[in-house]
Recover the amino acids of this structure.
């Protein structure tokens, strides 16, 4: 990320979104024509990898994506220039750096498949999302719909909650094969 920022300082900004359980900084890189500035009406998105510390492919792909966007912007690729000028992109390559370090130290053959998958506290960032459908449907049945739903699972960085951010752990939590309850949907059809 540092090399990309040095190559493209006018369109990148590296910032810290917090610390891991073991005190490692969680870094994000922003790619935009005005890094550090919220532009009203400009779409924003976050790419996050490394929820499972032992799965390094996503981390490497996001690092390569930042490099690609920088190089293509400098080369004048019209699609990339337009993307950078009309979108604010936030990239977090490693959400679970503690798990990454643990898996790296253990090695792929000695550590087993799960070494580094979870956080230090045993939380799986990719799967520990509350079943909000059931929670809200039960509240609706009691005529007690909450205005806010507490997050008992992970500490969400403040920037996730700003500027109408949308959060998705993976494409499957909302599908029929995922952990989201669909009992209410079948009752209403």
């Amino acid at each position: 990320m540092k090399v990309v920022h040095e190559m493209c300082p006018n369109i990148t900004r590296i910032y810290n979104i917090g610390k891991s359980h073991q005190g490692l900084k969680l870094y994000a890189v922003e790619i935009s024509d005005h890094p550090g500035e919220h532009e009203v009406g400009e779409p924003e998105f976050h790419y996050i990898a490394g929820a499972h510390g032992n799965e390094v492919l996503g981390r490497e792909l996001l690092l390569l994506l930042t490099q690609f966007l920088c190089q293509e912007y400098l080369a004048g690729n019209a699609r990339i220039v337009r993307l950078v000028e009309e979108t604010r992109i936030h990239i977090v390559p490693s959400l679970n750096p503690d798990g990454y370090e643990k898996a790296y130290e253990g090695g792929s053959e000695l550590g087993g498949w799960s070494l580094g998958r979870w956080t230090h506290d045993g939380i799986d960032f990719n799967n520990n999302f509350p079943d909000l459908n059931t929670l809200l449907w039960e509240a609706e049945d009691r005529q007690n719909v909450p205005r806010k739903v507490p997050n008992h699972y992970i500490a969400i960085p403040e920037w996730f909650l700003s500027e109408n951010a949308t959060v998705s752990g993976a494409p499957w939590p909302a599908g029929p094969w995922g952990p989201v309850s669909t009992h209410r949907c079948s009752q209403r059809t």
